[in-house]
Recover the amino acids of this structure.
């Protein structure tokens, strides 16, 4: 495999994220670099930012992550020497929804030219995403404050069932002429967990600087993994470029999303029938693979110690782990956790 990856793969996944008619692709302002999974894409993006974002100095931040977020994100940026890592408010625990007003308020206060890490869809660990109208407001603040967006697109298609809809925030930012990075992963939506298939998408304002940035990326890749694995990338490329396979993949992705929503609805209804304290409507208002239950750390500990159900301390639940055999038990256990530790 070439250092920057399988060319047909990077072209195909770039078109999947941005759309074939994207002005950035037509004007040759966008490129993809094959990476070792989504984590590899974040790491390469962090390395590029440190080396190239502020030419003439060793750039060390600031980077702003959502609160909450995947714990590994901060460590990935810190591993390349970017120590100036902060968080912006994303989740309203009381309303159990995205705290858009707080988010915009925090973005207005961060230093200009800061890097803002955003989840395009299926936010981990909450499963809650802003609406398109809210994304438009976020984009306006980003433009006004000259902030740099670094998108995460970990499971395109598995949030709404429509790959184009899941990538709408990314495409909207590109349509406004913003430069950005985007870390893509294909472990979940192509079920290639052991193949480590990812891509770092670059979108610039001018095509003249694209080759120079790719050259810097190639130099970095040689020190990180030398050459990316080829098997999974060829599978993704084959599916995306064969009309019959592509149609089948879209149908399967849509089916999986519908199954996940059915599981959410059944869990909410079961909790309602049991009389579990509080409202559980947020379970069906979230999307993607993750569900932010709202359970406290003490309630999570109860589930582990008394019911042998193991969740992260923040109460996040992977919906794909629930099925007809265990859903009733999980619902009853959550009810016990809530009534024993209100």
């Amino acid at each position: 495999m070439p250092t920057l990856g399988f060319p047909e793969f990077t072209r195909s996944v770039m078109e999947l994220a941005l759309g074939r008619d994207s002005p950035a692709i037509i004007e040759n302002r966008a490129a993809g670099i094959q990476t070792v999974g989504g984590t590899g894409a974040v790491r390469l993006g962090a390395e590029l930012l440190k080396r190239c974002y502020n030419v003439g100095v060793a750039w060390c931040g600031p980077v702003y992550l959502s609160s909450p977020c995947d714990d590994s994100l901060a460590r990935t940026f810190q591993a390349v020497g970017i120590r100036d890592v902060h968080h912006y408010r994303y989740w309203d625990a009381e309303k159990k929804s995205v705290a858009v007003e707080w988010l915009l308020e925090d973005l207005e206060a961060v230093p200009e030219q800061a890097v803002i890490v955003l989840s395009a869809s299926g936010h981990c660990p909450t499963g809650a995403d802003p609406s398109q109208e809210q994304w438009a407001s976020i984009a306006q603040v980003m433009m006004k404050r000259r902030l740099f967006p670094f998108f995460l697109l970990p499971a395109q298609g598995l949030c709404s069932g429509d790959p184009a809809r899941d990538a709408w925030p990314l495409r909207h930012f590109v349509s406004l002429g913003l430069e950005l990075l985007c870390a893509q992963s294909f472990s979940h939506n192509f079920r290639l967990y052991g193949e480590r298939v990812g891509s770092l998408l670059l979108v610039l304002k001018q095509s003249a600087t694209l080759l120079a940035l790719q050259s810097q990326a190639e130099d970095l890749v040689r020190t990180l993994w030398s050459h990316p694995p080829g098997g999974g990338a060829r599978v993704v490329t084959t599916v995306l470029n064969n009309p019959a396979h592509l149609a089948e993949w879209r149908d399967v992705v849509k089916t999986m999303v519908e199954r996940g929503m059915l599981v959410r609805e059944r869990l909410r209804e079961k909790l309602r029938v049991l009389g579990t304290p509080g409202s559980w409507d947020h379970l069906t208002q979230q999307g993607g693979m993750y569900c932010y239950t709202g359970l406290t750390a003490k309630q999570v500990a109860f589930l582990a110690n008394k019911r042998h159900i193991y969740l992260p301390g923040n109460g996040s639940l992977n919906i794909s782990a629930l099925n007809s055999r265990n859903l009733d038990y999980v619902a009853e256990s959550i009810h016990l956790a809530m009534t024993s530790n209100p």
Q: What stands out?
A: Residues 155 and 188 are 6 Å apart (CA to CA).
